[in-house]
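Quick one, tokens below:
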């Protein structure tokens, strides 16, 4: 059994084979995603893997990030594993434990906590995660099936069908954003949404400017009267479209619904690319009211709970950081 703590140690062909065969494969565990993370100046990527009998059976790819000034950065250092671990269906408990312990040993030096944001069902592996200190936390998501245009249209609520139709009839259109000026317009809208309603940190604009350099990634804008008024950020990979962000200036125009039109475009994008579903990347905690979940529910997706795993590397800093950051909101 061998552990790999650097991308240079990982056999790329075996990595691809694991992606092809794993029941929990997602874009976020691909070499392309790691390459994207590595292109960004404000975060630190990592990738660890484990081999059994000279075959790759487990891999984890993620990033370390912090927010704000020096003090806030100190208390917000976290390791995020979007999508979850990439695991062979028959990985041994010993191999998975070794991968988990390697994550803890390598990341505890730099992060206060480690969080996996699962895109698929990890129930088969949950007991091993929990045995190694990764606490399961319920978290919801929507997967919207995207077989064909007729089925996705029928899945929409009647109000969403009306909103899409009237927005398009009045001249709102969907465009792909490719220039820095267009992305800046979109980012300003998204930034306002995160400051006023979502109230969680947003990546710097660099994320979005470099995002479109990778073939899998698209930023779509909703254009009306010559201006960008909303849009969505999507990745298309192996039968799924992942919708990272959605925003719109919904209160600024009568009978124009840019956020709705942006999600609808993500759904159509999935249909046109032969994808099985749109992954909406989160719908909040089941025990808390969440307006975003209410909005996403109207697009006819299946509500799933694949949850998250949380490992706290430093309990004192974790508790202190939560208190301190809450005060800064």
């Amino acid at each position: 059994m061998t552990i790999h703590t650097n991308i240079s140690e990982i056999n790329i062909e075996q990595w691809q084979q694991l992606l092809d065969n794993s029941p929990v494969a997602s874009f976020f565990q691909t070499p392309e995603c790691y390459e994207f993370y590595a292109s960004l100046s404000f975060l630190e990527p990592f990738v660890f893997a484990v081999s059994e009998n000279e075959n790759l059976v487990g891999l984890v790819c993620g990033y370390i990030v912090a927010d704000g000034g020096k003090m806030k950065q100190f208390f917000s250092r976290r390791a995020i594993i979007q999508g979850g671990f990439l695991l062979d269906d028959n990985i041994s408990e010993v191999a998975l434990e070794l991968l988990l312990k390697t994550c803890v040993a390598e990341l505890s030096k730099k992060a206060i906590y480690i969080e996996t944001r699962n895109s698929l069902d990890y129930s088969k592996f949950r007991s091993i995660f929990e045995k190694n200190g990764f606490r399961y936390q319920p978290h919801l998501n929507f997967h919207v099936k995207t077989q064909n245009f007729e089925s996705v249209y029928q899945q929409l609520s009647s109000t969403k069908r009306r909103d899409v139709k009237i927005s398009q009839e009045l001249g709102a259109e969907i465009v792909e954003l490719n220039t820095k000026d267009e992305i800046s317009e979109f980012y300003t809208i998204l930034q306002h949404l995160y400051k006023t309603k979502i109230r969680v940190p947003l990546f710097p604009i660099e994320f979005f400017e470099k995002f479109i350099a990778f073939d899998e990634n698209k930023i779509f804008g909703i254009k009306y009267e010559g201006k960008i008024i909303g849009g969505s950020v999507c990745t298309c990979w192996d039968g799924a479209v992942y919708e990272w962000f959605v925003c719109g200036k919904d209160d600024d125009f009568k009978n124009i619904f840019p956020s709705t039109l942006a999600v609808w475009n993500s759904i159509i994008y999935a249909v046109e690319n032969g994808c099985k579903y749109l992954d909406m990347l989160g719908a909040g905690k089941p025990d808390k009211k969440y307006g975003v979940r209410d909005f996403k529910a109207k697009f006819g997706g299946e509500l799933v709970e694949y949850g998250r795993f949380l490992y706290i590397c430093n309990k004192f800093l974790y508790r202190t950081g939560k208190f301190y950051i809450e005060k800064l909101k």
